[in-house]
């Protein structure tokens, strides 16, 4: 598949999807004053200024987009060259979107090989009751999907590359623990998904997840 089953589902359901891809890493004046910006959005408190600067290598403090509904929250910060976005939502809400994502994968044309078909069949069986999962069941499903996608056994975090603009990529990481799903998208020019970058993103994501759980 173009994306592993686990990564595709998580990104489509959690990380902002097309909004993240459309983000311009160089905010315009209009972008910083759009009426949807509310720095009081809960997710805007889930990463500190120092944590964002440590991740990006320079301050990333301008809030350019926020949103949140039914327990979910999202905040996006940008500088002239960097993008950091945090999204958090109840794992049950994430799980309810998964059957539709499976259907989209089936019709996408990306399921070609015998391995792809086996992975998709396993995912479909796992998600048969996804619309009624508890938070703990949803996070357990996240872990299984991550394992299907190649993560280590018992993984609670996944990391993958995502397109930000036509010429720029970012790193998207997701974590599901204690019934809460949190996603972090990070991008700077010429970003490479190295072990050091993965470690930095994982650390920032863990901080955001800890605050999201405390805010419930």
How would you describe the overall organization of this protein?
With 216 residues, the chain is α+β, with helices and mostly antiparallel strands. Helix 1 packs across helix 6 (98-107), helix 1 (5-14) packs across helix 8 (135-148) and helix 4 (49-56) runs antiparallel to helix 9. It has helices spanning 5-14, 18-22, 29-32, 49-56, 91-96, 98-107, 114-126, 135-148, 195-214; strands spanning 62-67, 73-78, 83-90, 157-163, 169-177, 180-187. The chain starts with a helix and ends with a helix. Helix content is 42%, strand content 20%. Mean pLDDT is 82; it is low at 1-9 and 15-33. It contains nine helices and six strands, in the order ααααβββααααβββα. A six-stranded antiparallel sheet has the order 1-2-3-6-5-4, sandwiched between helices.
Oligomer: single chain
Name the poorly predicted regions: 1-9, 15-33
**Shape, please?**
globular
Put simply, the count of helices is: 9
Give the proportion of residues in helices.
Answer: 40-55%
SSE series: HHHHEEEHHHHEEEH
Structural class: alpha+beta
